[in-house]
Amino acid sequence: MDSSYSSQRTRNLYSSADTKPYKLSRSKIADYLKCPRCFYIDRKCGTGQPPMFPYTLNNAVDALLKKEFDIYRLEAKSHPLVLEHGIEAIPFAHPQLEDWRMNQRGIQYLHEPTNFIITGAVDDVWIKQNGELIIVDYKATSSQEVVTLLNRKSYKDQMEIYQWLFRRNGFTVSDTGYFFYCNGDAQRESFSGVLQFKINILPHVGNDNWIESVLYKIKECLAQEIIPPMTSTCDYCRYWHDVQKHVLK
Predict the structure, then answer these.
(1) Cα–Cα distance for residue pair 191/62, rounded to 1 Å
(2) Contact (CB, 8 A) for 214 and 32
(3) Is residue 7 a part of any domain in this protein?
(4) How far apart are CA 93 and CA 78, in angstroms?
(5) What percent of the chain has pLDDT over 90?
(6) What average pLDDT does range 106-120 have in this prediction?
(7) Is 16 part of any domain?
(8) What letter does residue 205 receive in the DSSP assignment?
(9) One-letter-per-residue 3-state SS of 136-170
(10) CB 145 within 8 A of CB 67
């Protein structure tokens, strides 16, 4: 291994002594829910998990969907697929939309009790005739099974954090958000340079009541000086535990 390589980070570390608000993204909240130990080692100690392979195909679908919905946003019209699913809404036009979509910015809210700035980058927002906003998340996959939200708790949590953020920014938000799910069709006889998708719009009735208590738990986790115990369901924790058996012999 290159001796110059280091996974140690010195930026964006949490310190109880720092009076400046600490930025905490939606994805980092998800990391805490998955494994407080790995979250602590990342945010407090500065060693994050190895990077995942980039979802370049998913990113391409995401970018194209945003361009497509932006056409209807300019025209203040509903997307035909939205109407087909009986959803009476149009893409929401707002001067901060591009900021809300950017990973490094997103929609933000200062949670004063914890001094956390919570951030989240949304894919899209629709608006109903009554002024309620609908949070929308794009998903791309390729599965022979019927696409559902069953066993997709992380997706539901993601939606609910976005809903919470928009409410804290003064918007009226519908409890029902939608996942615009694009399922790549691998059953076609040939590729011919074209990947076709079957599209489903899956509703989720969110409940963001859990978020406040989790933020306090995250604050408590980061304030302690002892690394939390390993999480039995965490693949990284199990891997590190087994590696130590060999390294520490």
Answers:
(1) 21
(2) yes
(3) no
(4) 12
(5) 69
(6) 98
(7) no
(8) E
(9) EEEEEECCCCCCCCCCCHHHHHHHHHHHHHHHHCC
(10) no
